[in-house]
Amino acid sequence: MPENLKSRNIRRIVVKVGSNVLTCAQGLNLPVIDALSKEIRQLENDGQEVILVSSGAMAAGVRKMAINKRPEAIPARQAVAAVGQAGLILTWEKALARYGKKVAQMLLTAEDMTSRKRYLNARNTLNTLLDWGVLPIINENDTIMVDEIRFGDNDNLAAVITLLMDADILINLTDIDGLYDRDPRTHADAELIPSIETIGREIERYAGDIPGALGTGGMLSKIKAARKVTAAGIPMIIANGKTDGVLAAIFRGQPRGTFFRPKTERLSSRKCWLAFSLKPKGVIRIDKGAARALTTGGKSLLPSGIVGVNGHFSVGDPVQFAGPDDQVLGNGLVNYSAGDIEKIKGLRTSEISSCLGEKPYDEVIHRDNLVLTSCTLN
Fold first, then answer.
1. Of 223, 242, 271, which residue sits at a domain end?
2. Under 8 Å CB-to-CB from 133, ≥6 apart: which residues?
3. I want to staple 218 with a disulfide (CB 3.0 to 4.6 A). Which of 59, 87, 144, 211 is the partner?
4. In this structure, are 267 and 285 located in the same domain?
5. Model-level pTM greater than 0.85?
6. 319-373, pLDDT tens digit by residue?
7. Is there a single domain that holds both residue 220 and residue 293?
């Protein structure tokens, strides 16, 4: 495997497979699914645990219903996903059964991850399946999809599952060999980027020029997923899922795809939940001193460092906090509502009670309920 992984004990793997890998002109790409099933089984025979995030339901439904493209109307898209999901899980089940592997289907929405109780329930279920030697196959529940409860795409879902399950690596299989400096399907001189340490604007620009076809996420969504997992100390690889033996090659140390180097410090499961699973309901803008205290001093957020509030939120809601340059620095759970924070911003903690008539907390966000991130979350 890549040099950066040699010192890591890679035991739990999340493999995400995209729609363009799993489908072909006739529908589901059976040879590819069979080949990946064999490889997944081999990884498990080698003592590793695998969780599979499988796209392809909507694409398979479109092909099965002989529709030229994904429907625009939400009810039609939900119906197409329902048609495709049945065939998708059955195909995986048959393929893996040939290698003596049982499977379980789990369909999730973003709402399942924002509720701490449901988040933990999902983790407990997945851990039980792994203990039983059953391969979890996860997809977004497109059949009840509405914007408020969508992950957005399965790249994001795969990142969330990686963090949820404290996985050691995320392998994102797509239909090209990795991240290029331009779209290799239209530029013959495009060059593969083998390794990325920092995801900056240039990397985003490269990714933005490489869209997806059947799936909802192009290369940019994969970069956003890489940001999340690497910020939590977990590496990610983008590789070509149609290449024979791609998983085996990665774990033999052969160069495949684009490797995203992780940060050295791993976040706890709860910190990952705070950072990447909750949908922020507002933004608290802070001054330079508060930003420094949070990012380098490990301090709580006090009202004295707050200069503005955007959004409407209540006590206990998740929010982002941003520095003077509007760069989002992290997420946290607030001890005060947006209206009360607007009243106490800039005040010392000793002045909270006289302003509000009470002072339930000194901190607007306690350090135990905040986490720093390296990406802007929408």
1. 271
2. 44, 102
3. 211
4. no
5. no
6. 999 998 888 888 999 999 999 999 999 999 999 999 999 999 999 999 989 988 7
7. no
Residue 378 lies in a domain: no
Q: What is the pLDDT of residues 265-304, one digit of tens each?
A: 777 777 877 777 778 899 999 999 999 999 888 899 999 9
Per-residue pLDDT at 53 exceeds 50: yes
Both 260 and 327 in one domain: the answer is: no
What are 176-202's pLDDT values in tens digits?
898 888 777 777 888 888 988 877 777
Q: What is each CA distance from 90 to 57, 61, 84, 153, 192, in whole angstroms?
A: 11, 13, 10, 22, 35
Q: Give the separation between CA 57 and CA 39, rounded to whole angstroms.
A: 22
Q: Crossing angle for the helix pair 116-131 and 154-164, nearest 10 degrees?
A: 80
What sign does the CA torsion over 286, 290, 296, 297 have? Answer: negative
Could you tell me the CATH number of the domain that includes residue 48?
3.40.1160.10
**Left if phi > 0, otherwise alpha if psi is -120 to 50, otherwise beta: which for 41?**
alpha
Same domain, 50 and 104: yes
Both tokens assigned to 215: 């799936």
Which of 214, 238, 271 is a domain's end point?
271
Q: Are residues 289 and 232 in the same domain?
A: no
Q: Does a structural domain hold residue 116?
A: yes
Q: Domain count of the chain?
A: 2
Query: How far apart are alpha carbons 371 and 86 in whole angstroms?
Result: 39
Q: Could you tell me the two tokens for 193?
A: 């980027």
- Same domain, residue pair 260 and 304: no
> What six digits make up the tokens of 299?
């301090």
pLDDT tens, position by position, 114-155: 777 888 888 899 999 999 999 999 998 766 655 443 456 889
Q: Is 164 left (phi over 0), alpha (psi -120 to 50) or beta?
A: alpha
Selection from 284, 15, 12 nearest residue 155 by Cα: 15
Read off the pLDDT band of 217 (50, 70, 90): low
Q: Domain limits at 192?
A: 3-271
